[in-house]
Design a protein that fits this description.
With 442 residues, this protein is of the alpha+beta class. It contains twelve helices and eleven strands. The longest helix is centred in the C-terminal third of the chain and has 40 residues.
Length: 442
């Protein structure tokens, strides 16, 4: 079988002169395989090839730290280390009679392929504890470079937890699903029980690395694959709230190839899409969409689906969380314009979306206000949340800013009073409806 002759696409296009500053001309011939993209641009535009190459370098890093000498095993001679590993590989494939052909000299290429796969599996096994420390939920990684783009799978809760670590400057804090429980609200018998104070956090990522990661996530929303969310969240004053995140799409299927990489069969297993995000300096979460089973082959949605779901949910999220301020986490592109970051106690809300299966998990890092801070009311009435804003005793009051804050507080109080009246009316209506249905008087 003759291999096709390699040709130059520039020569085929009859380009006789190349100006290397002409971006429009070069873009016709340069693919992702010929580009050298920084990781920031690869994240913003979801260029998978960059992460495949990055995973290759990580595998080589761990291969160099394995307990055996990889160069001696893959070298030209039949060293004792090579033959010992080859016997282990052959024993895993079958009986001695079935694998006797593998030890023949003419099958050196088959030996190298199996030994290289074994070494890569050992490198991935050495890499797994580092991933699990950052929240990877499974016991093992799939030994493939495609793990860099999701072939090892993940869980929505783990993705949300990672976003929380980034929001909290690299510190993981235990999530709290319940912040407080209130019984018989607005009655003489009202009882409120507070959740216990969260335990101390664990530093997983250096703060400067977490801030750099948040900056990249902000670019994904500003000019990348989640650009439709730019300006989707605003506070009560109309100021935009910083949002950053990362999109991802998975088309999981079993493909069988024949000679010449001819596709013999393809069986769809699932199709997934996700958007993990950080919202302001307190909230984080993930929106996922998934179709499981053979019917996944009938769908072609991408990460645009969860991004659009979050965009449509934005007004409801703003109303539920009473988003205020519009400040970005420290180190994010908007932080210098909108204000400093704040730490607050943990708060979580669950939202369902998308037509097949979607989930959004909102949370915020748990941290107590620092000494010398001024505490203002938090995101939701009765939630016990607070925002810590650093105060300087030498600063003078700004009358204009104070008036604006008073007006915003008044509007929030009016909105909360209106919601309380609506809840009371609905509660009374529910009791009257139950009494009419039972034929008695309640």
């Amino acid at each position: 079988m003759r291999r096709p002759k390699k040709t130059c696409p520039i020569c085929e296009a009859r380009v006789r002169f190349i100006d290397y500053k002409a971006e429009r001309l070069l873009s016709r011939f340069i693919t992702d395989n010929g580009k050298i993209l920084p990781i920031r641009e690869a994240v913003v535009h979801s260029t998978n090839l960059v992460f495949i190459r990055l995973m290759r370098d990580l595998v080589r890093y761990h291969e160099a730290r394995l307990p055996y000498d990889v160069e001696r095993i893959m070298g030209p001679g039949n060293t004792p280390e090579r033959m010992a590993m080859l016997r282990e590989v052959a024993a895993a494939e079958g009986t001695p009679e079935e694998t006797a052909w593998l030890f023949r000299t003419r099958n050196r290429a088959a030996q190298d392929n199996r030994l290289r796969a074994r070494i890569e599996r050992d490198a991935f096994a050495r890499m797994t504890p580092y991933w699990r420390r950052l929240g990877f939920p499974f016991q093992r990684l799939v030994p493939s470079y495609a793990t860099a783009i999701g072939s090892s799978s993940d869980q929505p809760a783990a993705l949300a937890d990672l976003m929380g670590v980034l929001v909290n400057d690299g510190v993981r804090r235990p999530p709290a699903l319940i912040q407080e429980i209130s019984f018989a609200e607005n009655t003489p018998y009202q009882t409120t029980m507070d959740a216990p104070q969260p335990a101390g956090g664990e530093l997983l990522i250096r703060p400067e690395v977490a801030r750099a990661a948040r900056s990249v996530l902000g670019d994904v929303v500003q000019r990348g694959t989640a650009a439709r969310l730019r300006g989707a969240f605003v506070d009560s004053t109309g100021a935009p709230i910083w949002l950053g995140g990362k999109t991802g799409t998975g088309d999981n299927r079993f493909d069988t190839f024949g000679r010449g990489r001819r596709l013999l069969s393809s069986r769809a297993v699932s199709r997934t899409a996700a958007f993990a995000f950080c919202l302001g300096d307190r909230y984080y979460g993930v929106v996922t969409a998934a179709v499981l089973g053979p019917e996944a082959g009938q769908y072609a949605f991408t990460s645009v689906l969860p991004v659009e779901a979050l965009r449509r949910l934005a007004p409801s999220i703003e109303k539920r969380l009473h988003l205020v301020g519009g400040s970005a986490p420290a180190g994010s592109p908007a932080s210098s314009e909108t204000g400093a970051a704040s730490d607050s106690s943990t708060e979580t809300a669950a939202i369902a979306a998308t037509d097949s299966a979607a989930a959004a998990v909102l949370g915020q890092p748990a941290a107590a206000p620092e000494p010398g801070t001024k505490v203002t009311p938090g995101a939701e009435e009765g939630a016990g949340a607070s925002s810590a804003v650093k105060s300087d005793p030498t600063d003078k009051d700004d009358s204009g800013a104070k008036t604006k804050d008073d007006e915003a507080t008044k509007r929030r109080d009016q909105q909360r009073a209106k919601e309380r009246r609506e809840r009371e009316i609905l509660r009374q209506w529910d009791w009257q409806a139950a009494g009419a249905h039972s034929g008695g008087r309640l």
